[in-house]
Amino acid sequence: MIYFSGLVVCLLVLTAEAKSGSGSKAFCADAQQCLVYNVTCKTDDYEVRSYESSYVAATIVKASTLEEAQMIGYSRLLAYFNGSNDMGVSMDPVAPGLVIVPHNKATEYFIQLALPAEYQREAPIPTDNSVFVTYTPPTTFYVVGYHGKKTDRKERKAIESLTRDLDSAGASYIKEYHFSAIYIKPGPEGNMYNEVAFLVMDEPVCED
Description:
Layout: E1 38-42, E2 47-51, E3 54-62, H1 66-81, E4 94-102, E5 108-114, E6 131-136, E7 139-147, H2 152-169, E8 177-182, E9 193-199
Antiparallel strand pairs: 1-2, 2-7, 3-5, 3-6, 4-5, 4-8, 7-9, 8-9
């Protein structure tokens, strides 16, 4: 838990028209609500996005791989969204799901799903003690996407590529961890869409 102190940050602003939000609708056709963001600028290699604050359901998972962490974490969170809460209500989680992935030898992954707009002001309390609701502030990210099933190998390849591009551009960003996003109902495995992101520090660096 200490590793994530002060680190619980996320994307997102939710609206009733979330599906039509910038950039997300192509990958959210099967979701009731999706994250909406503003593209500050972009290059051929990555884009800079800004997201507003929100409340999310989250859990911390100890696991040896990202794939294992996702399996455990999303199972806990989906149980909460399917009624394991003090109100006994079922909710549609907002796409995409998000994992904070540490780059050191720590094996704790912070996994979250945003609450739908109608529960942003009054969130149901989880009945599972390993799940909690938390506030996430406005955030700016360097983002790149890739297709296919999310695996540790593909994730590393995407992160290595984004790191090279950001370092080459002289960008300032937090390197101790990255954000890994996967859309809730991505369709056929070959068409699955994922994103990786770093938190922007100082002024973002990119070209129009």
